[in-house]
From TrEMBL, chains A, B:
PANTHER family: METHYLMALONYL-COA EPIMERASE, METHYLMALONYL-COA EPIMERASE, MITOCHONDRIAL. Residues 4-134 form the VOC domain. Keywords: Cobalt, Isomerase, Metal-binding. NCBIfam families: metmalonyl_epim. It is an enzyme of class 5 (isomerase). Pfam families: Glyoxalase_4 (PF13669). This is methylmalonyl-CoA epimerase. InterPro entries: Glyas_Bleomycin-R_OHBP_Dase (IPR029068), MeMalonyl-CoA_epimerase (IPR017515), MMCE/EMCE_epimerase (IPR051785), VOC_core (IPR037523).
């Protein structure tokens, strides 16, 4: 069912420093920072030949990643995102298999303007998993 | 400099259960478990269309991931691996940029029989980064 790894999301305490690290030290192509107020994050996209890394920093006062950064002040990998063809079919399959979908179970429009769901880390090897309709 | 994301490595407390999760719940193609005694891990490869997930479990008494599992009993993402063309050139670039290479700084032969280096998580946004010569 899952298709491509769409991205790996890394929460960082200092977005300009993290951007410089990926651009200058690791030599990758990085975007300008993009504020996404509805998602409470500012994101820099790191484009690799086969997938993306997303460097995330809290935006605004109620950022959903603020707590993660408090617990991980150096930053860390926040989630991985797998593509699926049909988000509702994926949601139903998760539930049938006994995996918990976060929130009310209804897909939301994600940072790429596509429907997404998040799955409970305790059900996925301690890893927060995002499913995005490709 | 960095090329493809070669893999995301996830340490799991129960390898058969994690394999079943990726195969049956997420519907991905999974390998048989492969013991890698020199690396102290047993690995199951999850093949996605654009990259791999590696499910890691400690093998033997001196596994380098045993401590991680003690700290993260549900499992978690352990490292991400980027491909580079020339591991020595990459190593020298890291050092010039002030990033710490773990160990003695000499590439070791990794789990894919290719030269690898690990970079200090504190210098990479709280993320353990492996570089592998492609």
């Amino acid at each position: 069912m899952i298709g491509k790894l769409n991205h790996v999301a890394i929460v960082v305490p200092d977005l300009p420093a993290a951007t410089a690290l990926y651009r200058d030290t690791l030599g990758a192509a990085v975007s300008q920072p993009v504020d996404l107020p509805p998602h409470g994050v500012t994101v820099v996209f790191v484009t690799l030949p086969n997938t993306k890394i997303e460097l995330l920093h809290p935006f605004g006062e109620k950022s959903p990643i603020a707590g993660f950064l408090e617990k991980n002040p150096s930053g860390g990998i926040h989630h991985i995102c797998y593509e699926v063809e049909d988000i509702l079919a994926a949601r139903d399959r998760m539930k049938e298999q006994g995996a918990r979908v976060l929130g009310d179970g209804e897909p939301k429009i994600g940072a790429h303007d596509k429907p997404v769901l998040f799955l409970h880390p305790k059900d996925f090897c301690g890893t927060l998993v995002e499913l995005e309709q490709a």
